[in-house]
Design a protein that fits this description.
Number of helices: 10
Shape: globular
Distance between the termini: 9 Å
Radius of gyration: 22 Å
Length: 261
């Protein structure tokens, strides 16, 4: 309704909470079950989908965080660059802990040991920094500063060289350096939803054009939506015949933008 940029899905100075969710986020003075928009302080790590409690929880294990799952989620759903499937017979992360170790290791320490296996290193070098940037949130999405009695280090470096010191820096790096990749992911997901099919190789010119237009318009949502509706894949979809026969026909769906809100 406000035609804001889709980049606010990555970073924003507001979030939506009710009393129950506000308690998880550590936000005081919120009463009632109704979800409401609140402004966040400038130093908040909330804002955007990466640090939403639901995303943080679904990308965790039942009893601990999972930087691997979180990193994989970002690669797939934000950057559109999913890692390759793991090779067979890969040991669990917990198995990387040396037998007889006296102290509990942090996720960062366990992953460092896990990456010593050459079979694991290639994919984990891409996933781990992204997931470790979110280690200031526990498996339920609550903020924290320590793990296993040690101060959490959420810093890291993207595979493309951008360094970050934590979740806020990571989100800013994604916006500044990787917004085009995010525009492509959002475009492909909306096309998939509206067309009712996956994006194919012959849709690449359409996706490229929409992404370029989005970048020119600072990611405005109306640009994304109208570009998809005006695209050839939507305007000239093949639909099944209404009489139940096996044939199909090409149907044009003219869209007028003159009266668009």
């Amino acid at each position: 309704r406000e035609d804001r940029s889709v980049l606010e899905l990555l970073q924003s100075n507001y979030t939506f909470v009710n009393e129950q969710l506000a308690a998880v986020y550590g936000i005081p003075e919120i009463k009632g079950a109704e979800m409401r928009r609140i402004e966040l302080p400038s130093d908040s790590m909330r804002g955007g989908v990466l640090t939403m409690g639901s995303v943080l929880t679904v990308t965790s294990n039942p009893t601990r965080t999972s930087p691997v799952k979180r990193g994989k989620w970002i690669l797939e759903n934000i950057l559109g660059a999913p890692p390759a499937p793991p090779p067979p017979d890969i040991p669990s992360l917990e198995d990387a802990k040396p037998k007889g170790a006296e102290k509990s290791l942090t996720q960062r320490e366990l992953l460092a040991l896990h990456r010593e296996d050459p079979k694991c290193a290639t994919c984990h070098e891409r996933m781990d920094p992204l997931g470790l940037a979110l280690e200031n949130f526990n498996a339920f999405g609550r903020q924290r500063t320590h793990e296993s009695g040690q101060l959490i280090d959420p810093s890291g470096e993207l595979a493309t060289g951008e360094k970050f010191s934590g979740a806020r820096d990571l989100k800013q790096s994604l916006i500044e350096k990787h917004r085009v990749e995010f525009y492509r992911v959002v475009t492909e997901k909306l096309l998939t939803y509206i067309l009712g099919r996956g994006v194919e190789y012959y849709d690449v010119p359409t996706v490229d054009a929409i992404v370029a237009r989005l970048d020119r318009d600072n990611g405005r949502f109306s640009t994304l939506l109208l570009s998809v509706l005006e695209s050839a894949p939507f305007q000239q979809r093949r639909v099944a015949a209404r009489d139940g026969s096996q044939g199909s026909k090409l149907v044009a769906h003219p869209v007028s933008t003159s009266s668009a809100p």
